[in-house]
User: Which sequence fits this backbone?
């Protein structure tokens, strides 16, 4: 067996049908730090299905993939409006999942259809696992949203489709950015669950929606960093107020997953009903093979997973020129000649 399901699945039926696409609802669900794991997954799944679902059902789970792609661990799965018998079919198909299917689902672009992912690896015929699921559901494709925190470890949201098709280009462009928020949100939740407590209390900084710093932990943010946080909060608040209804995609483009590659911004409401923005340090990292700076480590792990420069710039909230300069520094320090070598050394 190469696929293992860990934890009891949750099965949800008769969910509310989408009225209009609202990508901001996904981000609101992503930064709900108080929900239990499957409750959090359910919120993210509902919002994603409402935004881009095909009306055929969807499911989500945490995953861990072995370095050689021979084992997949599916944790805390949630199924939403899936066809009758779909869960049982997935359980039956698990022993038949091979490394080629694991590679197709969890290696490559953050948003693509499963059929396109297979084609990129030269896989044409359906595997036995796919035949089992297709026979039970009548559905032949899935849109995959892969939000990894480190290569081989992350959150997957999959939306069922009635025919083979590419991930719609416009949806893929915005959902690729959303996937970085999903990764940042889960990483931040894991940090809180390890003992950091309630995020609104133990925050590195607390700001008003207008960007005024009300509180900052000693040594957590200098004068320049506080100024950067204030500006980010102010821009986010203004854009959300003016564009939330008319152009929610524009708000997502402005709301970077991290500010200056360091902080996640989370909306928080206190007991008096007042709303604040909370900043927490939440940068991605990996075991450092050389004397890279903290900022260079953050950037290296994103490039190592194959993300293009524009997406790295979005996640870290940096200018593309800054990202380019840091990448050159990383390659120089690691004595590498190309980005391809970086992916080979640090990637999945």
Assistant:
């Amino acid at each position: 067996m190469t696929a293992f399901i860990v934890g009891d699945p949750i099965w949800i039926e008769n969910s509310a049908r989408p009225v209009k696409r609202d990508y901001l609802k996904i981000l609101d669900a992503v930064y709900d730090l108080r929900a239990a794991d499957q409750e959090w997954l359910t919120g993210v799944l509902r919002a994603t299905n409402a935004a881009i679902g095909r009306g055929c059902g969807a499911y989500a789970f945490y995953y861990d993939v072995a370095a050689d792609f021979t084992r997949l661990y599916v944790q805390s799965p949630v199924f939403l409006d899936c066809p009758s018998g779909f869960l049982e079919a997935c359980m039956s198909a698990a022993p038949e999942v091979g490394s080629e299917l694991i590679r197709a689902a969890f290696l490559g672009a953050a948003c693509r259809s499963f059929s396109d992912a297979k084609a990129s690896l030269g896989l044409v015929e359906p595997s036995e696992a796919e035949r089992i699921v297709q026979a039970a559901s009548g559905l032949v494709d899935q849109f995959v949203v892969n939000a990894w925190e480190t290569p081989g470890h992350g959150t997957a949201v999959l939306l069922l489709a009635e025919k083979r098709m590419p991930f719609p280009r416009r949806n893929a462009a915005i959902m690729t950015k959303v996937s970085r928020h999903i990764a940042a949100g889960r990483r931040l939740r894991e940090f809180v669950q390890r003992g950091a407590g309630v995020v609104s209390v133990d925050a590195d900084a607390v700001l008003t929606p207008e960007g005024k710093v009300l509180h900052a932990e000693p040594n957590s943010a200098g004068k320049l960093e506080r100024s950067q946080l204030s500006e980010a909060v102010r821009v986010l608040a203004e854009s959300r107020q003016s564009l939330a209804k008319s152009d929610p995609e524009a708000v997502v483009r402005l709301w970077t997953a991290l500010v200056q590659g360091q902080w996640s911004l989370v909306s928080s409401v206190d007991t008096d009903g007042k709303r604040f923005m909370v900043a927490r340090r939440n940068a991605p990292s990996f075991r450092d093979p050389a004397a890279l700076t903290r900022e260079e480590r953050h950037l290296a792990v994103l490039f190592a997973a194959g993300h293009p420069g524009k997406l790295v710039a979005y996640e870290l909230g940096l200018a593309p020129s800054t990202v380019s300069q840091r990448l050159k520094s990383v390659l120089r320090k690691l004595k590498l000649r190309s980005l391809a070598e970086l992916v080979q050394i640090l990637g999945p």
About this structure: Residues 196-201 have pLDDT under 50 and may be disordered. The longest helix spans residues 169-196. The CA atoms of residues 32 and 40 lie 7 Å apart.
